């Protein structure tokens, strides 16, 4: 799931991810993302940090807590943000982000990361 209040940025990222073979859902507010993820399981969340109503750090913490409450495997959290200071990255780690990309995103690097994550997710299922 892509969560970004910038509609154009979310749609561009979604098109890029879709063209790479990923199934993508978009939400533009943290509350909508939480509501949707309570009913559907997502493997990866790509979150903007500068969201309205609740920043991406708090959304990350809530998504991880929600997964635990629902008995799900914690999703991989990836920051996609304009906030690139060391303190921002440190806050991201504390909030549970596994990866932190500063806009403009290095598209090939993001594609490699998501392909690696997809392979990791597929391996246990295929081996069972």
List the SSEs and their pairings.
Layout: E1 2-3, H1 7-19, E2 26-27, H2 30-39, E3 44-47, H3 56-69, E4 76-81, H4 86-95, E5 99-102, H5 107-127
Parallel strand pairs: 1-2, 1-3, 3-4, 4-5
Helix pairs in contact: 2-3, 3-4
- CATH C-level class is Alpha Beta
Low-pLDDT residue spans: none
- What value does the Rg take, in angstroms? 14 Å
Order of strands side by side in the largest beta sheet? Answer: 2-1-3-4-5
| Fraction in helix | 40-55%
Cα end-to-end separation: 26 Å
CATH architecture: 3-Layer(aba) Sandwich
How many distinct domains? 1
The 3D shape can be described as globular
Backbone structural class? alpha/beta
- CATH fold topology: Rossmann fold
CATH homologous superfamily (4th level) name: Response regulator
Give the strand content: 5-15%
Q: Could you state the order of secondary-structure elements as H and E?
A: EHEHEHEHEH
Q: In DSSP terms, counting alpha (H) and pi (I) runs of 4 or more, how many helices?
A: 5
Mean pLDDT: 94
Report the strand count. Answer: 5
The largest pleated sheet is described as: 5 strands, parallel
